[in-house]
């Protein structure tokens, strides 16, 4: 890092900026362009202004805290998304991206472009539009928690005030309806099930779901998203131990999640991965010979 700074490869802009960051990639034969803005989000308690979808663990957080203390830097952005139903932010980013990018490159077959927004009025507009909108974490829960803990410790020690840069966590924020924001299905494998287990017995337990038997040819799960799409939002495929028994399930009522996860916020309870872990995988546990699921 010191070498990068010394050579000028890594330098600080003269004024506060927000950056437009584009990535163009291919999936299942289709090209997608995802547009994010790199910006700072004030570190607050998870579940209020910043919404998580998974729990964190002490070990990874301790490791990241050591790295933060050693470097005094946030080395990679949190990947998150936000709601922009009127596409106000989208239009601001589109205007910036119409210019020649400040930086371009490619990594792992992903084309990347970067633009700088330094106009104070444009930045203030973005801040006002998102003032009451939560940010949802897609990836980076441990890094976010670490950054928030680090900032809190500095404030309590009197090292920084409430407006210091350390109070803000670097995010790559993407609009929730961005056509390039491709979220692929979550896969989980449960090993060492008892002989008594079957999807039929699980069906009796998971009566809060609508169950549809799949009767077609062996499904092509290399494109699980394409396989599930005809069944609607929130559809999940359950495949039995022999691979031949396939059911599609959808949660019939969100009240089941309210009862099962009363301490979580509604945004978390609405996430498919939260439904999968809270209702489905917890229901499977009585038939597991091991606690490991992957």
Summarize the structure.
The chain is of the alpha+beta class and 294 residues long. It contains ten helices and eleven strands. The longest helix has 16 residues, at 141-156.
How is this structure best described in words?
It contains ten helices and eleven strands. It is globular and about 65 Å long. It is of the alpha+beta class. The protein has an eight-stranded mixed β-sheet. A three-stranded antiparallel β-sheet has the order 9-11-10, with no helix packed on it. α2 (58-71) crosses α5.
Question: How would a crystallographer describe the biggest sheet?
Answer: 8 strands, mixed
> Could you say which structural class the secondary elements and strand pairing correspond to?
alpha+beta
What overall form do the CA principal axes indicate? globular
What string, H for helix and E for strand, traces the elements in order? HEEEHEHEEHEHEHEHEEHHH
- Main sheet strand line-up: 3-7-4-8-2-1-6-5
Counting DSSP H or I runs of 4 or more residues, the number of helices is 10
Strand content: 15-25%
Which residues sit in consecutive blocks of at least 5 with pLDDT less than 50? none
Helix content: 25-40%
Record field, number of beta strands: 11
Mind telling me the C-alpha Rg?
Answer: 22 Å
Average pLDDT = 91
End-to-end separation in angstroms reads 36 Å
């Amino acid at each position: 890092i010191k070498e990068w700074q010394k050579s000028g490869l890594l330098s600080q802009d003269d004024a506060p900026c927000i950056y437009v960051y584009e990535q163009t990639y291919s999936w299942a034969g289709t090209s997608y362009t995802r547009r994010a803005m790199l910006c700072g989000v004030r570190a607050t308690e998870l579940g209020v202004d910043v919404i998580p979808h998974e729990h964190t663990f002490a070990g990874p957080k301790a490791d990241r805290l050591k790295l933060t203390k050693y470097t005094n830097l946030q080395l990679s952005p949190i990947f998150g998304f936000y709601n922009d139903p009127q596409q106000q932010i989208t239009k601001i980013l589109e205007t910036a991206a119409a210019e020649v990018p400040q930086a371009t490159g490619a990594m792992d077959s992903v084309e990347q472009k970067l633009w700088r927004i330094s106009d104070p009025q444009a930045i203030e507009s973005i801040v006002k539009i998102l003032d009451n909108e939560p940010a949802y974490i897609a990836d980076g829960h441990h890094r976010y928690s670490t950054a928030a803990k680090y900032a809190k410790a500095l404030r309590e020690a009197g090292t920084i005030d409430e407006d210091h840069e350390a109070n803000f966590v670097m995010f790559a924020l993407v609009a929730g309806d961005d056509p390039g924001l491709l979220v692929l299905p979550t896969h989980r494998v449960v090993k060492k099930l008892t002989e008594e287990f079957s999807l039929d017995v699980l069906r009796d337990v998971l009566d809060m779901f609508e169950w549809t038997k799949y009767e077609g040819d062996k499904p092509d799960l290399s494109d699980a998203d394409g396989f599930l799409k005809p069944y609607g939002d929130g559809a999940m495929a359950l495949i039995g131990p022999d691979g031949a028994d396939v059911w599609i399930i959808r949660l019939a009522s969100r009240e089941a999640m309210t009862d099962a996860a009363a301490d979580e916020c509604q945004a978390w309870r609405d996430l498919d991965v939260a439904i999968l872990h809270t209702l489905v995988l917890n229901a499977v546990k009585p038939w597991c010979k091991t606690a490991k699921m992957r």
